[in-house]
Amino acid sequence: MGTQPPGLLAQRLNRLFETVHPRGRGPFSNEEVAGAVRDQGGDISKQYIAYLRKGERGNPRLHHLEALAKFFGVPTSYFFDDASAAHTEKRLEELAAWRDAGLTRQDLQSLEHAGVTSVAMRAVGLSPKGLEFAKAILDQLREMEGLGPGPDGPRPSP
Q1: Which of 25, 29, 6, 9 is nearest to 17 (CA)?
Q2: Taking the model in full, what pTM does it have?
Q3: What are the structural domain ranges in the chain?
Q4: Looking at the predicted structure, is the pLDDT value of residue 152 above 70?
Q5: Degrees (nearest 5) of the Cα angle 48, 53, 55?
Q6: Which is the CATH superfamily of the domain at 8-124?
Q7: Directed axis angle between helix 46-54 and helix 8-19, to 10°?
Q8: Residues 6 or more apart from 32 whose CB is under 8 A from it?
Q9: Nearest to 94 by CA among 77, 76, 71, 74
Q10: Quick one: pLDDT at residue 54?
C-alpha cells in the first residue's frame, strides 16, 4: 500500500462511490457508507471517509479498507493491487450496465451463478440484426434440449 502514487486510493474509492449504487438514485453519501459500516461492527466516520476520498489520509488501516471493500462488494486488494483493480474496474463497468438495465446486485449474482451473464456480455455491441440472429440460435438450442421457447417467446428466423 505504501508504494501507491498519492491520490490513487482516493481515485479508486471515488470510483466505487460513482459506480456502486442502486438504480434510480445517486451515489451513497459518506454518512450512509459510514453508517452501514458501523452497523456491521466497523468503526469508521463520515469525516474519515471524506479524508480518504480527498487523498488527505495516506496510509489507512487495513480494517478500514476491508470494511469499505465489503460495503461496495469488491476485494480489499482493489485499493492497493493494480491487477486486482483492473479486474474489478471491468466488473464495475458490467455492474453499472446491468444496474442501468434494471437489475439489482442480487439479480446479477443469480444470473452469474446460472452462467447467463457471460453469454449476455458476448452480445454487447452487436447490431440489432446480430442480436436477432443470436436470439434465434439460442431458441434453436433451447428446442434441441427440449426446453421450449425462451421466456419472451420464439423468434422469427433471421
Answers
A1: 29
A2: 0.67
A3: 8-124
A4: no
A5: 95
A6: lambda repressor-like DNA-binding domains (1.10.260.40)
A7: 120
A8: none
A9: 74
A10: 95
